[in-house]
Design goal:
Helix content is about 25%, strand content about 30%.
């Protein structure tokens, strides 16, 4: 009877291992969308910025792209911002850009919620606190590395990017709002982050690298 018991135990162990492998496989699929394999270990995402449908009168209407690229699983998230429509008169102005919690544009950019803050930190320590961008000739053309990610439970996929009216005070404003949103003012434009092919990134990145450099 002992050999029979050993065979039974071995069979049970094999079933358990198979179940565990399925769990790991399912978990890996959650962390890494199939596009990662399709695009050689890199995930791309795109966000088409449009003016908020609840934009206050007199504020500029901004358009453009915020694009994302990240190598799986531990690569740094690269973010390419190409947004236009800011006033040219008066010279360059700093504008804040952040990731917000909800990919909900039902009432314009106002329904995107507050800053995406999965770790319950004060601003400017949210992973999507991109900071301030100089609007040269009415445009933002910038590339940064971000603490946000496209992978796992805290992925930014499906959330929103918001372009703000004012400069981010980076948490130094001395009031409660400063630690929530940097007193960055109204929401000019926004978009929802979605997985994309590399095509848009490659096109916009080439244009970005070819642009005239400021002396």
């Amino acid at each position: 009877m002992r050999p029979h018991r050993s065979v039974s135990m071995l069979g049970a162990l094999l079933v358990l291992l198979a179940a565990c492998q399925q769990c790991v496989s399912a978990h890996s699929d959650t962390l890494a969308p199939p596009e990662v394999s399709q695009y050689n270990g890199t995930l791309y995402a795109a966000c088409k910025v449009r003016p908020s449908s609840s934009l206050a009168q007199g504020l500029p209407k901004v358009y453009g792209q915020v694009l994302f690229k990240q190598d799986y699983p531990q690569g740094k998230l690269q973010v390419l911002l190409r947004v236009s429509g800011f006033p040219v008169a008066g010279g360059p102005v700093l504008r804040a850009v952040h990731i917000h919690q909800f990919g909900d544009l039902s009432t314009g950019c106002d329904s995107t919620g507050g800053h995406y803050n999965p770790h319950n930190e004060n601003h400017p320590n949210h992973p999507g606190d991109f900071g301030n961008f100089d609007t040269q000739q009415g445009k933002i053309n910038a590339m940064i590395e971000s603490e946000a990610t496209l992978f796992g439970a805290v992925s930014a996929i499906g959330r929103a990017v918001v372009v703000h009216e004012k400069m981010d005070d980076l948490g130094l404003g001395g009031d409660p709002a400063s630690l929530l949103n940097g007193n960055a003012g109204g929401r000019l434009g926004c978009c929802i982050i979605g997985i994309s092919s590399p095509d848009l990134w490659n096109t916009q990145y080439k244009q970005y690298t070819r642009r005239p450099r400021r002396s």
